[in-house]
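Justification of computing resources. Each target in the renewal requires a structure prediction run like the one illustrated here; the chain below, 508 residues long, is used simply to show the kind of job we budget for.
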Amino acid sequence: MDMHRTDSSRNWASLDPDPCPLSGRFWSTERGSTILTQNAMRNTERCGGECACNDTPYYTTFAPRCCLHNICNGIPRIYDGRVPILVTMDTAMIKSILVKECYSNFTNRRDFGLNGALRDAITVVEDEEWKRIRSILSPSFTSGRLKEMYSIMLQHSGNLIKSLHKKAEAGEVVDVKDIFGPYSMDVVASTAFSVDIDSINNPSDPFVANIRKLVKFTFLTPLFLLLVLFPFLEPMLDKMNVTLFPAELLDFFYSFLKTIKSDRSKNEHKNRVDIMQLMVDSQMSETTKEDPSAHKGLSDSEILSQAMIFIFAGYETSSGTLGFLAYNLATNPDIQKTLQEEIDETFPNKARPTYDALMQMEYLDMVLNESMRLYPSGNRLDRVSKSSVEIEGVTIPKGTVVMIPVYTLHREPTLWPEPDDFKPERFSKENKDSIDPYSYLPFGAGPRNCIGMRFALLMMKLSVVEILQNFSFVTCKETQIPLELSTDGFTTPKDSINLKLEPRGAHC
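Resulting structure tokens:
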């Protein structure tokens, strides 16, 4: 594969002059994807076209930082197994790939296959199938729909606060995952399927236990490594119904959702405002249409795939983001105090937050945005080129995987001064215009960004406001400072984030 610049003075720079046989940089990049020592982070000397940092740990980018901001006079290329990967942090190129050329050439994400029951999920499907499914799901996340869901979120946020009062009174050290995981799960299950799991009070519920098992997926499983080393085996394994995810767990959720879907199809549920009903309605309306050119609704398989991916994504990404935010607030008490002052001014005497007022809170926006900059739930974005194309002077051949290393992009010193510091003021009204919008991608960008972005932001803001009305997050001897990140390929803490909750006064 000949990836090159049309300007011969700016050739592609290979970061793998000596990649490992078969696996390329996969093994080192996945194992060290979120780790980089302070010395390596500061290693930004010019390399003169040759990568002088082959031994530098990889930093969620799957490439050393010193090579990723074009210091090496070229665009980096690494290898995931046998597949060459174009790595870019050029924001003009990112805009072209994610937005300008999305529909024409970079519509699809990289797919390793063996998705099992998730094969029809919006995160996996391609081209026209993706457009069709996206258009059907999009109405679920309009402002009107979110306002209808808000009362449900308030109910579960209230349950969360009640449970936290008990923990605070007992002086317990809390694992933030145990706080935000159940809350996220309850909100998702209620708003998507009108199912009240109440995992906050029933942590041993089979639904909760199985979702926790499922999200322990790591890129270091033998099966995933086999796909990286020998991708030609995927069709055969797929015919054998082999999946990357544990089959018994997928079967559990598939059966659970199939029962709900069957009930919706048989009975009238006109007053439902949840996502499952929207999908069922699209299917039912399709069966009544006689026009063969009418827009196609969702099949049974597609409905169940969307429902499953919504559970997994809603639970893991939101709870993880809230956990990192709690850590950032506990380790920056002055910022936490400023946020509490805005909360108290907006909702005096611990009044329940209203939708409209919540959406107008400027400092809350700033704090959440800055936390997602430091710890984006998705640490990389991949797109596959459908045809040979030239972007910003770079010729990208058909079939090339283009990777945007979000975690490192968010900590690039030329884009973010003092990148490792928690500074919400970066996102103030005064500073916001100076931010390149394609240097900040916690939800991706363009037509294929995260469809549930507004939903996730709403549920996260609500929980943060209600918690900080009643408590302050504080560090304790069990708190790991500085925080170490996992090496499993995701932006997750290596160990639990342990904090304490300090009750606030009655007249905040």
